[in-house]
Amino acid sequence: MEKSILLIPDHYGNRIFDQLNSNYQCQIVPSNEWLSLSKQVRIKSFADWNQDAALIIDIAGQDVILNINDGSGFGWATTIKQILSSYANRFLLQLNTWGDATHINLFNDDGAFIEPAASQEPPVGRQYSRNMKYWGCNFAIPFSSFHQYVRTDSIHMNRFVTPLDRHSEGFDQRQGDLLPAFIRWDSMKQEYERIDVEERELTPVSPEMCGDSWSDQLEKEDRQKLQQYFSRIEHLGTKFGAINIRVGGEELRIPLSARKEEISFEAPRKSLITAVEEEIFDDMLIGNYMKTCVSGVKSLTPEFTPFVTKYSDNGRSASQIELQEYFRYYRRRSANYWKDMLKAKSENLIRTYVAPNSETFRIAKSLKHRF
User: Fold this and answer.
1) Taking CA atoms, which of 145, 213, 259, 350 is between 20 and 30 Å from 43?
2) d(CA 40, CA 37)
3) How does pLDDT run across 222-239, given as a tens digit for each residue?
4) φ and ψ at 130, to 5 degrees?
5) Which helix (H) or strand (E) holds 294?
């Protein structure tokens, strides 16, 4: 790592660059500009307003890899597709699963667990086909979907993790080829060979081994940190009346406005306070051991999660004025900002009023893909 250079997308706020640059050699990569890494390899990065980034990897001018991970290429979709269209072999690396890679440990007002869309086990192969068609790729490889839950307070969520042997269900071969997950592609021979791997055996880990104890209670300073953390994000007060925190059997209520909608979190003290101090609340969400109750809203998206984890934590924009500058930055730098923003706003409108695990949401999502 000493001689390595870390390439960082040009995100607003430069949080990743600022935190890594003190210990590592880092370089910011401007969006939509080719950067040569060798005689045969060059890349283009595309930072978007959701604090995600897409990466195009050009190999010898004939093969191209689109690494979209769990992002959407907001503000760059048309540009990316135009670049990919000139290559013979177009490989897509994108998260495709039943849908456990977001916070799904949700409960209603009555304390009943809300079955996520992942419980319906939708054919993942159809996702691959849709995404390949959307981006114009003719190859796809299972990617970013091999995680497991090992904490004993979240291990039960593994039932929503898509088994690797079910990724091809519903795949439409007219879109191209869905290749095996672990391969080595030879650009000269235009063929691949499998890489033999062994699946890791799941070994349960107790919360205590991670420094957590569900019986620990908040200290006075902890309460102040939580109050300051959520209160500074002005958007929350326009959509929610309060954030309720339950730790060690004790309640902390953080009033935001006179609205009736509320969110309640129950989590172990150590992880919760660390997430607030380090401004990495997204880690609490994706860990799926924090219990969340939503009251008056269908889910945490779109009014909570992006404003807390994306715009505030990562983008350093908590106030309304800061948010205006934040989106102005991406508007100036994203070639397809308005087109993609319209699509995002339309989907967010549906998410606001329709439960993500409902039949109505499934139909609306299907119609969106067809459109």
Assistant:
1) 145
2) 8
3) 999 999 999 999 999 999
4) -60, -45
5) strand 291-295
